[in-house]
């Protein structure tokens, strides 16, 4: 019995030793066993572990160092109020980091960890999925031959209450973290600390965000400039949100049609004259109709002539794969929830919200919206085992904390979202700053045409348009889950980074 107790105590000590990066004691007094176990479930806000590894990218073996740990968030009085978990990859055969780009990566939600782009997109490890992004067993991970680690170092950041990040001062109001402006403010401070500790002030810097992460990095671009005097070379927006760019009313109703057309094309629900075209040959026709015909018509509201309304219902049905009667009954604007239910209703399936290639099965075919998001359940199935295995086994970050794929961050205060304008100001103030948008054609939450609309309307003057670019992919919200797009989207990031690096001695000026 005594020997068993000592064995358990040693296990707890080992867990703590890894997470704290401290020497492991040989024995722990039996009276401390319960306390030791409990402390493994409490975040140390300032600690890390380091490992060494390598990955082959584009035929070259690249050695790298990984730092996994936490850096504190302090209040105005210097008191630690939270710890933010991060995973930092730096190429270890590059000694001079002066010209080595640094990419700071966020996912979205709000409330999502950085897991998605970390082990499925840009990082050196890739989760086990099939070539289209569906779960396979056994769960696990492998080398990512498309990682951008050949051209840039990367840090993946988990905002408070996501991943292993936690509030450590329970008296701190959650409003310090959970809101558009609060999120930008504390993460700006955190990035400043990270850059100081990792000695990366001289490096060209990039922000990449996905989904709500695009709201975050758009705001951070200006926050880093104005508050921390830290200037960026680039911002990459993956499946961007609306960025507080106005599009209510007719614009909102019209802009969803190109996404409908892309999804209908994928599921072979368009008429032959459209279906026989390639996706990217078909979509320009739909986009042209959306901007030049549908949007002006919807602006007339209930005063649109009846004959014109019937004519448009027929055209929308042709482009969306939805019956003319359904379109007409919805006054030419079909709700997206109804589209996800209606498109394959005759086959007994729904289509996914974030990626309409995924299919779901409902209790009843008669409802007007799906019972669940088919793609999200599939992704949680794919990602949760590998990230927990990877962080604890390969990176040796030992803790009993739960890794929050999605964490409690609500209510979220969105009242101070001016992030589209923040990004415009950052670009205007920094002649070096370039922006690239990446979108999947089958994303119904942050659809590709609204991403284009954001790009067109970030800067009404048009003076910055040469520094804004868009790339589309034949998948959904996480376009990189499709193997063919994983390769091309990473290559697009490489090209973007290289194109946004100024020549030595080139000044930042107009």
TrEMBL record:
InterPro entries: AB_hydrolase_fold (IPR029058), Peptidase_S10 (IPR001563)
TM spans (from-to): none
Keyword Ion transport listed: no
GO biological process, any: proteolysis
Species this chain originates from: Pseudobacter ginsenosidimutans
Higher taxonomy: Bacteria, Pseudomonadati, Bacteroidota, Chitinophagia, Chitinophagales
A Pfam family it matches: Peptidase_S10
Keyword Hydrolase: yes
Endpoints of the signal sequence: 1-19
Name assigned to this protein: Carboxypeptidase C (Cathepsin A)
GO molecular function: serine-type carboxypeptidase activity
Keyword terms of this UniProt record: Carboxypeptidase, Glycoprotein, Hydrolase, Protease, Signal
